[in-house]
Design a protein that fits this description.
The protein is mainly alpha-helical and about 210 residues long.
């Protein structure tokens, strides 16, 4: 009679289980805020949708805002990975216009990504009426990206491609702010052609050369 092998008594892989739960929570939070809006999204709702206990969520995050912020970071990183890009980077090829156009084209792709668009609009809209949430949205999600533009423009100043007296923090608004406004308010389509034109107008101005 063949000898039976001993049962596998290895402990469960808690790291894998935790990652699976974390991913389910991200997906549930983003789906809920898109479907019902930020005010009606709750920790209990996220937990039920993700198939976890709410104590699991509170073990990792202190509020639904924290869950959503982290879910957005993860979503942006995933979108960049799918596109073969490094998240939160602006290239420095020595050609400022080409570099800005490249990163804004990637931003267009992200803004038009169905995974990103609905929850992002819901969170951005709520940030306009909830001052605390709005500050956290800007601080945690927008400001790190804006700083990358500042750094790239300063490098261009060092290379003599941008006048030294220009304030990079103001200059970046010439192409970032119009895109954000058009996307949020549906004032027109967003496309590569549109963002390329923003860069050309910002770098070369409107006066005859």
């Amino acid at each position: 009679m063949p000898k039976q092998s001993a049962p596998d008594k290895r402990p469960p892989d808690t790291a894998r289980r935790s990652e699976k739960s974390r991913r389910a929570i991200y997906d549930a939070a983003l789906a809920l805020v898109a479907e019902v809006g930020y005010p009606r999204t709750t920790i209990e709702g996220i937990a039920a949708r993700a198939g976890v206990g709410k104590q699991t969520i509170y073990r990792w995050w202190s509020s639904k805002a924290d869950v959503l912020m982290e879910a957005f970071f993860d979503l942006s990183a995933q979108a960049a990975q799918d596109a073969g890009q490094q998240p939160y980077t602006i290239p420095d090829t020595g050609d400022l216009a080409a570099d800005l156009k490249a990163v804004l084209r990637a931003t267009v792709d992200e803004l038009k990504d169905p995974r990103f668009e609905a929850p992002s609009r819901a969170l951005a809209a709520e940030g306009l009426v909830d001052e605390e949430l709005g500050r956290r949205f800007v601080t945690k999600l927008l400001e790190p990206s804006l700083q990358l533009y500042v750094d790239r423009l300063r490098a261009a100043q060092d290379a003599g491609q941008v006048r030294p007296e220009i304030d990079p923090r103001i200059a970046l608004e010439l192409f970032v702010s119009p895109l954000a406004q058009r996307w949020l308010q549906h004032t027109g389509p967003i496309s590569y052609e549109y963002t390329d034109t923003l860069v050309d107008y910002a770098l070369h101005g409107l006066a005859p050369r």
